[in-house]
Design brief:
Helix content is 13%, strand content 44%. It is mainly beta.
């Protein structure tokens, strides 16, 4: 979540970094940069630093930030800064403090700017106090001697710092979910949720049936756990799971690789040619499905008609389980497929028809 060397001009290096112990926060981190007088926008910067302090909750962070903002606002803030610098050996006359600013950055921002004179040389110094969610940030810049720090450059770097914190807090899948098990009716597939970064990430699961690895995937109703018992209706399709990582800042979804095509057990019927749909494709007419051709000497056939959209996402049509189907008004601007399940003493196999022509 910290600023990186790449956020500064080429040639910048990290002088020091690491965690520090602070009983007031859950965790605290510091990073110092040597910018060597290079240009950051219109500003020449000698050095920079960032601090990160983690509170337990966003409300705790807001309270801490609001207290700091109240402490440093107006003339009181200037006096506090001067007192701190005088304690470091600066004379009061060498310190010039500008009014504090409150730019709209993150969940709260306060910018303290001053100019110091040391041995006749003037340089600028700014500290941006920032908050995003439950993280408190400090971003400091020291100008090259004799030059100034421009407000736009200070605020631009503060926004970069906040975006880095945001990226560290929102859910991100560092590794996708992984399936294990046999893609066969009656067998159980198990999903590992993947590896996630973010703050307080909770995972939810949704199993999907697809025509191919990433084509025509639709959610399976009620299949919202890390395991799934493969159903007969999944025959001739592939399965995958989509896992959503969610926290108070947002949600991200990652999908597993697809299973192999769901097939019946050894000895069950295997399609040699897929079923086909015949008829006139207009609302109100009846169309018919062939069974296709099979090995394994099927003793029974079952049918399930599906309505498909232009992206080949197909959903079962409730009650449409005969070898014929009468096109309904809701089928307009869709196409149809039919799943044929053939059964023998060893079990069931399935085959899916090609899509019908689009229904006007």
């Amino acid at each position: 979540m910290a600023l990186a060397v790449g956020d500064f001009p080429a040639g910048t290096r990290v002088d020091s970094q690491g965690w520090k112990r602070d009983p007031d926060f859950v965790g605290s981190y510091e990073r110092d940069f040597d910018v060597r007088g290079l240009r950051l926008g219109r500003s020449r910067v000698l050095a920079a630093f960032q601090t990160l302090d983690l509170e337990r909750t966003p409300a705790d962070a807001k309270l801490t930030f609001d207290l700091a903002a109240e402490l440093f606002r107006g003339k009181q803030g200037a006096q506090l800064l001067k007192a701190a610098l005088v304690s470091e050996g600066f004379s009061p006359k060498s310190i010039s403090v500008a009014p504090t600013r409150r730019p709209r950055i993150g969940d709260g921002a306060l910018v303290l700017a001053l100019r110091l004179t040391q041995e006749g040389v003037r340089f600028g110094f700014t500290v941006s106090l920032l908050r995003f969610d439950r993280v408190l940030l400090g971003v400091g810049l020291i100008s090259f001697p004799g030059s100034s720090l421009h407000k736009a450059d200070v605020d631009r770097l503060s926004r970069v710092a906040v975006e880095r914190v945001r990226a560290g807090l929102v859910p991100v899948a560092a590794a996708p979910p992984v399936l294990s098990g046999t893609a066969q009716p009656g067998q159980t597939l198990t999903a590992a949720g993947g590896t996630w970064t973010g703050d307080g990430v909770a995972l939810t699961y949704q199993w999907e049936r697809c025509l191919a690895a990433v084509v025509g995937c639709v959610p399976i109703a009620g299949a919202t756990g890390p395991t799934y018992v493969v159903a007969t209706g999944d025959l001739a399709s592939v399965l995958r799971i989509s896992v959503t990582g969610r926290n108070r800042l947002g949600a991200t979804t990652a999908s597993s690789a697809a299973s192999g095509q769901v097939a019946g057990p050894p000895g069950s019927p295997t399609a040699l040619a897929p079923p086909a749909i015949n008829g006139t494709f207009q609302v109100g007419t009846t169309v018919f499905a062939t069974t296709g051709s099979w090995s394994g000497e099927p003793t029974a056939f079952a049918f399930q008609w599906r309505r498909c959209d232009a992206s080949e996402r197909c959903v079962d049509i409730a009650g449409a389980t005969a070898s014929s189907y009468t096109l309904a008004p809701e089928d307009a601007r869709s196409s149809l497929r039919v799943l044929v399940v053939a059964t023998n003493s060893a079990g069931a196999g399935g085959s899916l028809s090609p899509p019908s022509p689009a229904i006007p």
